[in-house]
Amino acid sequence: MxxxxxxxxxxxxxxxxxxxxxxxxxxxxxxxxxxxxTELPIHLVDGLYLGSYExxxxxxxxxxxxxxxxxxxxxxDCPTVDFYDECNIELMQVDMSxxxxxETKISNNFLKPIFNFIDKNMIHKNRNVxxxxxxxxxxxxxxxxxxxARNYGKSALWCLEYIKTKKFIxxxxxxxxxxxxxxxxxxxxxxxxxxxxxxxxxxxxxLSW
Length: 209
Prior knowledge:
Elements: H1 11-15, E1 29-31, E2 34-36, E3 42-45, E4 48-51, H2 53-56, H3 59-64, E5 67-72, H4 81-87, E6 90-93, H5 108-124, E7 128-132, H6 139-152, H7 156-164, H8 173-186, H9 201-208
Parallel strand pairs: 4-7, 5-6, 5-7
Antiparallel strand pairs: 1-2, 3-4
């Protein structure tokens, strides 16, 4: 898929500079010697934010970041439709399992309407989009990893490590494995250490933790 370069900054440029869109002041999470702040959603690429249910229901945060579209992949954890109507926010809800059994099948067909929703709002309407689940640790990071890999030509593992520089995430191994398989289709020329999927699942778990 072609990306409008005038609207997007490349992930390379974003990852090589400080993120001025995150105006965090209070450190609220510490993992693997990295200090993270969860007061606000994190800014991943122009127009795309990753956050939790607490962010999604906070009108002040949504207004502060000018978020006018929300993708909820924790179907039960969502403010009412009336809440978003009052905020003039477009909402898409997707029922994605949080079970360690990774019951949701991550496929191109599953991702297509999700990616279309993000593209419609980010590219065509120039809106800021919040992708959230309950805690922004498993489900919503999986979607963001897949979206950036699919649209920016980066490997899924690179996207995983990129997001981990901004917040603690732990997509379950089943979701990661499925995204890695799709990544082989999206970016066949990228040299990925798991391209042949022969290494033990332990390697994926190590990267996610």
